[in-house]
Structures are given as structure tokens and as C-alpha cells.
Amino acid sequence: MNRLEGNVALITGGSRGIGAATALRLAAEGADIVVTYENSSERAAEVVEQVKARGRRGLAIQADSAVPQALIAGVDEAAATFGRLDILVNNAGVFLVGSLDDLGPAEIDRTLAVNVRAPFVASQAAVRHMGNGGRIISIGSNVAERAPFPGLALYSMSKTALVGMAKGLARELGPRGITVNVVHPGPTDTDTNPADGPNAETIAGFTAVGRYAEAAEIAATVAHLASADGRYITGASIHVDGGFTA
Q: Is residue 40, in this structure, part of any structural domain at all?
């Protein structure tokens, strides 16, 4: 299918994991792709090459999501390079865990800067380039609704904030034909949370299906929301978690 033919999508943190899988799925659906990265320049370049192999244009931009000016510049560069911006996927995130006593101001500030402020700032910048049919999709987390272990309070709080942002922006941007949603992945097989990791069996056991997701399975839902098929979905939080929150 080419549901996204003619669209330009920007995926923050798109050099690996769910971000990379999303970039490749949207490219396969017909979109030109821009990915941002903080440090993984080689992996970002690999994603761009795979995008081009699918017959689409691709671009990698170095931008630390914790730095608002860098993020805004990246959004503007994406729109200027390809002449438009239709889809923003707020994927970049940090996963810092620890007890209430162990998390200091530095950890709190970093988490909120990347997981909360960055999606808001990127959305602000992106809507300046979007017309009717624009899409903003943020990648949340299954622990926004269910925190099965101690030490998740900071991370859970940051991902829950995306729900409020989506609801508020859905109301604000709906009259402009722009939808805003959150996708909450469950445990997903990535470099930072491998399906064969030391706690993977226990974590997989919290799901109804008894396994980790593949990153491509999360990307499939993002692609649906990004396409015209998802035009009547906004302000929603969609759990792609194998029944983790059932």
C-alpha cells in the first residue's frame, strides 16, 4: 500500500528500535522520511539508506531532544528540505528508573526534558508547517497505566503526561484537520530491552500473549494513525501491549 504517498514524516530518535521500525514502515507506505538522532550517526545513516532502498527520500538530522533550539531547528530543516511536513512521531525518550530517594534533580530534569518538553516543543514547531491532514503521534509506554515494579514513578509520570498533551492538542488542532494521538507500546524487543534479557521472561509474563512485541508491530499502529484511515482518531491513547494492561 502507498497510503502515505506524497507525505513527509519526521521521527525523533529514529535511528534504532521503535523509531527505526516506524521510519521504515512509513517509508514502505510511501512517505519521505526524516529521522533525528543524538549520538548514533552511523545507525541513523543506515536507516536513511534503507529508506532510500524503498524508493523514498531520507534525511538524518543530529538533534538532542533535550535542547529545544536544536529540536526546533531540526523540525524546520526537515520541512525546508522536503518542502512540507505532514507527520510528526515523537519517539525519542529516556528511561531512567530508581527509587524516590535515588532520583535527583539531574535525573528528573533529563527525563522531563526529553520525554515531556521535547514532544510539546516538537509539536509546536511541526504544526507551523502542517496543513489539513497533519498527524502528531507520540510514543508512550505501557507503564503509563500500569507500573508493575518499584522505581518506575518518574518514567511513568513522564509518559502519562503525553496523554494529557494529546487530549489538549486534539481539541486545539482538530479544527485545523490535525489529529494527535499516543501509542503505548508494551514490552518490545529492542537493544535497550531485548526479548532475551535477564528479566525478559518475567516481563513477558505480564502480557496476555506471553511474549515481547516486535518493533514493527508498534510501527504498524503508528502507520495506521498516520494515514487517512486514522483520520477520525484523535485524542486517543492506543495500547499495543499484548494485553499488558488488560
A: yes
